[in-house]
Design brief:
Order of helices and strands: H
Helix content: 10-25%
Number of strands: 0
Strand content: under 5%
Number of helices: 1
Structural class: little secondary structure
Length: 44
């Protein structure tokens, strides 16, 4: 079990941790997205 004081992330404050069930994880819409731009003409 992790306590909020056990988590060290600079600039991010953790008030509580919530454990999700597998069903909740499956229905989660993640905010993070990997995006890339195609190379420009000068970089090919």
């Amino acid at each position: 079990m992790l306590a909020p004081d056990d988590i060290h992330l600079p600039g991010i404050f953790v008030h509580r941790l919530v454990e999700l069930t597998p069903e909740q994880v499956a229905g989660t819409k993640w905010i993070e997205k990997t995006t890339t731009n195609p190379p420009s003409e000068g970089q090919r």
